[in-house]
Amino acid sequence: MPEPEEARTRRRRWRLMLAYAVIATPSLVLGAMRALEANNNSPIDWVDSDFAPRAEYDRLCEAFGPGDAVVMSWPGCVLAEPSLDELVDRLREERAFFAPDGSWLFHRVTSGREAAEALVAPRGQGGEPGMTRDQAINRLRPSLVGPDRSTTAVVIVFTAEGLKQRSRLVAAIRELSLGITGIKPDDLHLAGPVIDGLSVDQASQTTLARYAAPSSLVVFLLCWAGLRSIRAAAIVFGLAAFSQAATLALVYYSGHSMTALMIVLPPMVQVLAVAAGLHLTNYYFNSERSGEEGALAAIRAGWAPCVLSAATTAIGMGSLLASGLTPIRQFGGFAAAGVVLATVILLGFLPPLLAWARVATRGPTEPGESDNKGTAAYVAAVIARWRYAIALLGVAAIGVGSYYAAQIGTSVRIETLFPPGSRILEDYAWIEEHVGPLVPLDVVLTIPTDSSLSEREKLALLWKIGREIAGGDQAGQLGRAVSAASLMAPPPGMTEIPPDTPAEVIEEYLLAHHPLLSGLGVLSSNADSERWRLTVRASALGDADYGALLASVAGDVTAVIDKVRASTGAPIGVTVTGIMPLVHAIQSQLLDDLIKSFVAALILITVTMTLVQAGVVRGLIAMGSNVFPIAVYFGWLGWRGQPIDIGVVMTASVALGVAVDDTLHFLTFFQRGIQRGASPVLAIAEALRKCAPAMTQTSVSCGLGLLVLALSDFAPTRGFAISMAVLLSLALVGDMLLLPALLLVSTRGKHQSDPAIAVQSDCRIDGDRELREVA
Asked: FRET label pair with 98: which of 75, 225, 315, 681, CA 20 to 30 Å apart?
């Protein structure tokens, strides 16, 4: 019998699609490799320049120089050590620290030893004496001189061009420092924003190098075990890998680069593609005929739930585009694009490849299926018997979990990015113990050049602010204030100046200090105004509440400034900025993003479900099992009281979208049973028989595949992996227990069954009678 023209056309179309995919593969692989090469991260760069606290911080850097610094110290790094001078000089002179065009890649290099010498040295045209050595040491504590009045540090401030080469430059700094000092590598301690970003880079790249392959292997083995066909598993896994490459290539060819959070993008796209592939392959297995007819049957049966699942998952991930944090926004956009690409690839290639590979279908007569029917019937009977209790417990869990989830806090502080005992945290702890706290909070006073305030009054104002902060509620959490007032000699009280000294002489003496103050980064002047900088520092570690510290300092500063404005009428601008306010603002933004993205995803997915279910009540019931895992897990996190990191924040919206996947497949078979006249209990049994294997396979393979990444040293990646694995497990419980219970409760009085279907399913149901005979 001649082959129908429709079949020949379909085969030609499939072959053409396969040819296009083969042609595109080299470009996709190249783009994926290039995307993985580029990786540049820094927590303070997680917000755009139009983010208000970041804009204030940028203005601070424009006035006083960049804040991207390395703080370096070691045992034996003391004020009396002359090798410090050699190290500083060589950091300023070595060719390794210059760009090819001759520009220096550092903005400033200094040491506590050099700063102390500058304060002691005579200054001014008359060669007035500087501070005594004890005075200088007191002024530099605890920013550049430690509590022992001897241990100090070297501070290296990077330029924007230097930041692009930070990996090479930090390695060169280490090599030079070890060569000059002769210390052991483990004794050299480095901290600061540059080290934060570099450590994030290295941790994320190490995660990918170490765990991407094991994660893929786990996914493949579980896929093989679930499908019981190595050819089917290889096809599903291969198309998932192709989807990964396509998503990464999209990142590269769109001009973006990988961030630390994007490191979880490839494995996540892989497991989502595998999950969709498992469902679609099970549709193929359940078809009556093999070959191309089976492929067509799989497409007809699976395209609607697969497309709807992809749409809801993409909505969940796309809701992250509302974030104010760049890496979350990028992750959400590319993850949504990856889901759409994976769905198109699977629907276009999986069924024909299964047919061409001659993977056999199993149909309704697969050996052992009667056992599966019996199990599904038994579970349906148990759920039907306890439907009210299950529904009540599920709703109660959602309510209690939502209450505690509202108490969640977020953090992007350094100790939330790395595990206890990691090298970067040990370095921070050593430097803060032996030198001083490292997180700066800056108060900038802007005073017009034509202000009526004298130099003496300006310094007195800075001194009063420092004294007010030192006596504030949070004084124990902050180091001593460093400003022009604390770096001047004689002390700002001017008690050493004879009372009959003319004001002009005092002004001239103070003006002579301006070059020194500018060099020390506490004064910046232009034709219109002067900016005077006062800095206090808090620990990067520990449990200091940055919000409380900021509120306390802002209140102290406002109290002093208001008095001066009232008494002198002088216009004085005040800005509180620095790393601490920026980190606090990012933490607040994280919590705001968690709420906004989840609410947006919840609304959009709920609307989608009401349309799919053709009813508001039905849609809300279907959403119950999807909200259940998020409410329970995030409620537990809120009950624990520990802040969550940026990786965990993303999982709420992502998990909501992913959870809908199994729900839609379950509802598809449930509705088909109802439409054929089956009772709700019988429809539940049929849906469990058809979906439970694929639902379990996807949850186990995806959960365990992602859980491999929990071995990472980068806390956000670890948190994302663990959270997704837990949420997928809870989602499986919700779809296999809570969803059936809610459906049965909502369909009370509608238990009319078709005897033919009951016999076909080995299930004898009559009205409200449950499946006792099968059980």
From this structure: 75
> Has residue 351 got a pLDDT over 50?
yes
User: Distance (Å, rounded) from C-alpha 314 to C-alpha 656?
Assistant: 10
Query: Residues 308, 293: contact at Cβ < 8 Å?
Result: no
Specify whether the CB–CB gap between 584 and 643 falls below 8 A: no
User: What whole-number distance in Å separates Cα of residue 441 and Cα of residue 53?
Assistant: 12
Measured between alpha carbons, how far is 672 from 305 in angstroms, rounded to an integer? 12
Give the Å distances, CA to CA, from 521 to 63, 109, 514, 515, 533: 9, 12, 11, 10, 8
| Neighbouring-strand partners of residue 532 | 445, 523
d(CA 355, CA 344): 18
Distance CA 727, CA 540 (A): 31
Distance CA 320, CA 264 (A): 15
* CB atoms near residue 730 (< 10 Å): 22
CB atoms within 10 A of CB 342: 27
Q: Could you tell me how far CA 310 lies from the centroid of its own chain?
A: 23
Q: Give the pLDDT confidence score for residue 338 in this predicted structure.
A: 92
Query: Which residue from 17, 10, 766, 48 is spatially nearest to 346, judged by alpha carbons?
Result: 17
Torsion of CA 306, 307, 313, 314, to 10 degrees: 150
Task: Tell me how far apart the alpha carbons of residues 294 and 284 are, in angstroms, rounded to a whole number.
Answer: 6
Phi, psi of 532 (to 5 degrees): -105, 130
Secondary structure letter of residue 361 according to DSSP: P
Which residue intervals of 357-454 are DSSP H helices?
369-385, 387-405, 423-434
Q: Helix or strand or coil: residue 111?
A: strand
* Strand segments (E) across 171-291: 189-191
- Give the integer Cα–Cα distance in Å for 663 and 738: 11
Residues 668-695 have pLDDT tens digits of 888 888 888 888 888 899 888 888 887 8
- Alpha carbons 243 and 277: distance in angstroms, whole number: 11
Q: Report DSSP state, residue 359.
A: P
Residue 392: other Cβ atoms inside 10 A: 13
Helices (H) and strands (E) in the chain, counts: 26, 8
Q: Please, are residues 691 and 666 in contact by the beta-carbon 8 Å criterion?
A: yes
Residue 70: beta bridge partners? Answer: 156
- Burial label for 769, CB within 10 Å (0-12, 13-18, 19+), is middle
d(CA 275, CA 280) in angstroms, rounded, equals: 9
CB within 8 Å of 377: residues ≥ 6 apart: 685, 689, 761, 762, 763, 771, 774, 775
Give every CB contact of residue 90 below 8 A, 6+ residues apart in sequence.
176, 180
Return the number of other C-beta atoms located less than 10 Å from residue 92's C-beta.
14
Cis ω for the linkage preceding 214 (within 30 of 0): no
Q: What is the spatial distance between Cα 403 and Cα 489, in angstroms, rounded to a whole number?
A: 57
First to last CA, the chain: 49
pLDDT digits (tens, 9 = 90+) for 417-456: 888 889 999 999 999 999 999 888 999 999 998 888 888 8
pLDDT over 50 (residue 582): yes
Task: Give me the sheet containing 529-538, strands edge to edge.
Answer: 523-525, 529-538, 439-448, 573-577
What single letter denotes the amino acid at residue 15?
R
Give the DSSP letter of residue 737. I
- How far apart are the C-alpha atoms of 460 and 485, rounded to whole Å? 7
Residue with tokens 């004794």: 187
Name the burial class of residue 332, with classes exposed (0-12), middle (13-18) and buried (19+) by CB atoms within 10 angstroms of its CB: buried
In the block, tokens 């970041």 appear at 54
> Beta partners for 331?
none
- Which residues, other chains included, contact 251 with Cβ-Cβ below 8 Å and sequence gap of 6+? 31, 35, 257, 258, 262, 265, 334
Structure confidence by residue, pLDDT tens digits, 511-534: 777 887 888 788 998 888 999 999
